[in-house]
Amino acid sequence: MCTLIGTWVGARLIFGTLYLRFQSDGTWQASFSPGGFASPVSGGTWTVVSGVLSIVEDLVASPPDRCTADQTGHYGVAFSPGCYQVTLTSEGDPCDFRGSILGGSTFTAD
Question: What does the radius of gyration of the chain's CA atoms come to, in whole angstroms?
């Protein structure tokens, strides 16, 4: 069975490559460098129920890109055979900034 727990490398964005780390305690972090999780640019909590990732931010680098704690994003999770890639498909995210980055993105296990 595939799991999101671990570090995932995303596509290059205008501000760098996005790295996501999902931890077994239900927290996640985002960084623009593989060693940047000591000072993440974002983070919060996550769950997966019936193949849908629900993600909330409670650590954000700076407004105006801030997603508030009451803005839960929902993403369908589809793993590749072998579980080395995951694609997130938006199923609704009131935070436009997060939705524009995560929705439709494919991440590779690091």
Answer: 13
